[in-house]
Fold this protein.
Amino acid sequence: MKSRKLGRGVAVVGAGMSKFGCFPGFTSRDIFVDAYKDLLNTIDKEFDPKDIEAFYLGNYSSDLFEGQAHLAPIIANWIGLSPIPSTRLEGACASSSIAFREGLIAIASGLYDMVLVGGIEKMTDLPISAVTDTLATAADIPYEVSAGFTFPGFYASMATAYMQAYGATPETFMKVTLKNHENGSLNPKAQFGQKIADIMEIKKASAIKKGKPAPQWRNEMEFLSDDRANPMIAWPMRLYDCSPVSDGGAALLLVSEEMAYQFTDHPIFVIGTGAASDGPLHGRPSLTSIPSAKLASNNAYKMAGVSPSDIKLAEVHDCFTIAEIIASEDLGFFEEGKGGKAAEEGQTARTGLKPINTSGGLKSKGHPVGASGAGQIVEIWKQLRGEAGERQLAGNPDLGLTHNVGGTGQTCVVNIFERR
Ligand code: COA
């Protein structure tokens, strides 16, 4: 692929998200309003929403999840932005990173000066079996799903291949769970705002209250290894290795670089973007890496003129714990086969050398699929501005990266952000 540059610079000057979780009785449009209001509260200086020229919305499947298609103009209208052009973009779980890229390209091309980008998904209206089937439509129906594959199954295959190739164990994956739940416990917008230790204590108290024998877990690893507390979903992926089914939305305000300081003294600049596609998992030579992620990140690094070692923090697509480990290698943070060890050693913790998923990641923050990429950008924006509250990284990080995968890697989008 040719190395490319943006036609002009682009900055993110506002970023907001709804809480992620399960919100019965609320539709996508209601949830997006929360994200949009949150964004409006983050814009430091005077701003008139009438100056927004276009809206790009990432959404995987409101058609199947809610029976409502054509969502972008509906949401634009609901938040008072009609009649601006409003477009929905779909790329499975990478939908809102694709929407972000399209908004970025539109400003970089000079077509617009200000656009709103967002993502939304309302998944929890359907029973879990229908959610699983809906998600599976992002895979190859005739060649994979008809053979019995669902998403936990795909990532379980990758996990077993990784264990076989590099000697990782189920405990390696549990370290990712512990870290991401710990980070999520510091994020008020996270679906699971609890550390595994807290969940363990709640379960113990609940058993005692019901007059059952108190569980004998001595620590979190014993809790996570207990088939009753942490049931197997698709070996070796257990419940706490999976991202949850979630509702949620996220929104970002993008402007041209020359306008950025009109809205804030602390814009965050987009200095690199890369995207790539691939065929389904069944045709790939290896199950232990995702080629589109390598390509997308190489292109983003080239555009940004930085290398993996320059990146201070990353939000990566941990739809399952194994996915975070593979991402940390595909992005060049660790050598192939070394990401599992790095997770075990705490190198990806908030205090580690390469903090990953300080928000709690999809695992703990939640994974409303069409909103997850935009949600990752919200976290990087906050961390680079020093506004991430209790989970704020020390040392004023200046470069952050997002990595968002669609399906098993048929789509991948990587973006790099800078505080100047
Ligand atoms: N992580 C941690 N806890 C979870 C969880 C998760 N992923 N999913 C559910 N829970 C908890 C619930 O909060 C609930 O806790 P409680 O008993 O204390 O109230 C309990 O587990 C049962 O929840 P329930 O909603 O009945 O679970 P479920 O069996 O319907 O769903 C999964 C569990 C793993 C099947 C579901 O979360 C799933 O399919 N995840 C993967 C989603 C996916 O594939 N996304 C796309 C990725 S590419």
The pocket of coenzyme A is lined by residues 93, 128, 132, 135, 151-152, 233, 239-240, 242-245, 319, 367, 369 (CB under 6 Å). The two ends are 29 Å apart (CA to CA).
